């Protein structure tokens, strides 16, 4: 669950060495893990072609090469830079490797080979050279299988961004903990299957070196999921209010309302303008309905203290009405989605002012375009990865930010970050975001804290899509939500 950034992994390596652990011994274990993956996955390869870089990633490559030679595999090594300038463990690994290496420009495709990419790993921060990009392109075009050491060279370990070019690995072997770049796009698409190998750094050291990044799994939120008991009844399970647009725009809010009900809220009420009441009523069964046409009617409704959370945005409409409704709701648990976000595009500070000074209880769910409207300066910052953008936005808004996409990122103002990676491609369908907003709203209504509700909502959304399978529609998703008691 805990992910380590390249800097944090470097700190873990340093702390391990300072504690007396043999750093070269760790490198040998890493290189042997790579060679074992090669032998397991590609036993019929005609040659292991090992690209060794100028740092410790290259050292792992030299160890792997020597181990493969000992196993009877033909091996060719191509080095980047001057190997005489290698230092520390990487230098020792090259000395211990009895295979002559050649400069990487000498590489030529070899029939039946498998490439081991030990050039840069996760720590790369600059674009690859044109010459390396040409080699990568040749390997890719020839469909040569690649095993990446730590991370495919060219992929940023912190951001997942491709820096000029990057190998497309069939398999990636990383060590102790995965990095954010393994799960963020486009890096995730370059990793192939991911193997996290334990080379022996103690967990206490990883915990000391680690920070805020996590893979979004049930371990992150399961303890906060609502649990039913013999004394449960509908009012104790929370009352969710979902706001609808006008007569021709009730569908999105109805999707959210049904999702909130399926997520466990005891009651869900669809708040509709009076002129949309008849349209909405023809589609509602278990979801209740309340005419709420203006802010005065809203404030009267809010006098009912049994209302525990709200969803505003899906199909609501952009404009002043949305802003006044949010002002009335700002002190209550709230999912602000779609039109609710866009309504503050011209005045984001107004929204941030409404949410300031309290314990964070609002979840903002922007997709890329909506994020850019609300946080234009953060969005256009090219050096920030998606987690950094979401984290900065969360601190500015004093809200949990769920930055949607195939690699959804959830960030809290206190620095916690979760990267969601369970969503299948077929989840990209009209209305799925409305369902996500409703799931989160249903969890907030049952008392889940905002960050845990957002993390759980994103994971449940993806899990439901996987259960539903290809060809799903948004209407299918709520019916495929798993039972909370079955989540492990």
TrEMBL record:
Report residues binding K(+).
57, 117, 153
Q: What are its cofactors? A: K(+); Mg(2+)
Keyword field? ATP-binding, Isomerase, Lyase, Metal-binding, Multifunctional enzyme, NAD, NADP, Nucleotide-binding, Potassium
Query: Any keyword ATP-binding?
Result: yes
Query: Where does this protein hold AMP?
Result: 404-408, 433
Enumerate the catalysed reactions. (6S)-NADPHX + ADP = AMP + phosphate + NADPH + H(+); (6R)-NADPHX = (6S)-NADPHX; (6S)-NADHX + ADP = AMP + phosphate + NADH + H(+); (6R)-NADHX = (6S)-NADHX
Gene Ontology MF terms: NAD(P)HX epimerase activity
Ranges for domain YjeF C-terminal: 217-488
Membrane spanning segments where? none
Give the co-factor note: Binds 1 potassium ion per subunit.
PROSITE patterns, sorted: YJEF_C_2, YJEF_C_3, YJEF_N
Xref: CDD domains: YXKO-related
Q: Which domain of life is it from?
A: Bacteria
Where, by residue number, does (6S)-NADPHX bind?
56-60, 121-127, 150, 252, 315, 367, 434
> What's its EC?
4.2.1.136, 5.1.99.6
The UniProt record lists the YjeF N-terminal domain at: 9-207
Q: Which Pfam families match?
A: Carb_kinase, YjeF_N
Subunit record text: Homotetramer.
Family membership, please give it.
Belongs to the NnrD/CARKD family. In the N-terminal section; belongs to the NnrE/AIBP family.
What task does this protein carry out? Bifunctional enzyme that catalyzes the epimerization of the S- and R-forms of NAD(P)HX and the dehydration of the S-form of NAD(P)HX at the expense of ADP, which is converted to AMP. This allows the repair of both epimers of NAD(P)HX, a damaged form of NAD(P)H that is a result of enzymatic or heat-dependent hydration. Catalyzes the dehydration of the S-form of NAD(P)HX at the expense of ADP, which is converted to AMP. Together with NAD(P)HX epimerase, which catalyzes the epimerization of the S- and R-forms, the enzyme allows the repair of both epimers of NAD(P)HX, a damaged form of NAD(P)H that is a result of enzymatic or heat-dependent hydration.
Matching entries from HAMAP family are given as: NADHX_dehydratase, NADHX_epimerase
UniProt name for this protein: Bifunctional NAD(P)H-hydrate repair enzyme
Question: What organism, scientifically named, is this protein from?
Answer: Martelella mangrovi
Gene giving rise to this polypeptide: nnrD
